[in-house]
Amino acid sequence: MSEVEISGNIQINLKLVIRKSDGKVLCAQGEQDFADLLLSFLTFPLGRINHIFGENCSLGSIGGLYKSIAELNVNKYLISKQAKDRLVSPCISPQLKLTKPIFPILDPGDVDYYRHYVGNFGIHVHFLKAWDDKSSVGNCTRLNFSKYETSHESYVKGPSMYVATDDLVIAPLSPISALGLLNRFKIPLNDLKEKVVTIGMKEALSILKAGLTSNSALTNGLAHLLTEVKEEK
């Protein structure tokens, strides 16, 4: 992945609960910014995810599908370059954006939509990025989505603390939920360790990628932060 794509300056503080015997992250506790990070994963188009991680991304059949479209001759097999762009480099819907996007590279602000009527056959809608040549779409009218755009500061509201398990099941954090997790894992207290970490864009993308390929998103995504825990075994 490029430096541009990991250059965001997010800093999210987490408390990890780790099983010392195997270094597995059982859960992570964080505030609203942590919850927003995980929930934002649900807003990402698969094509854009593959675009971010590039050709070396291992997303199984989705990766193969993406590569096959990316390599198609746009003039021979697709109706337009804009159609190909919508598939291989889509952006987040404007209705889903936050006031302060966690992943600025996916901000829909650099995308415009244009429409034009084709006789009695209906409307054609064109998806164009800010730097695209707009002369290719002919006599079109730019669509204004401002009245539909309702950006929010957060996807969640109080309580302000949340807990997520290794497979990214998220819930509000309370003494009862914490006790329930301990009972669920049935692990002796002397085999547990807490570790406070700060994650940034690099770790966020790593968790996202791990979540698409395994049920151990936190353990695999934050593996480089867990080395000292494994050494204590």
From TrEMBL:
Q: Show the PANTHER family listed in the entry.
A: DUF674 FAMILY PROTEIN (PTHR33103:SF43), OS01G0153900 PROTEIN (PTHR33103)
Q: What is the protein name given in its UniProt record?
A: DUF674 family protein
Source organism per entry reads Trifolium subterraneum (Subterranean clover)
Name the lineage.
Eukaryota, Viridiplantae, Streptophyta, Embryophyta, Tracheophyta
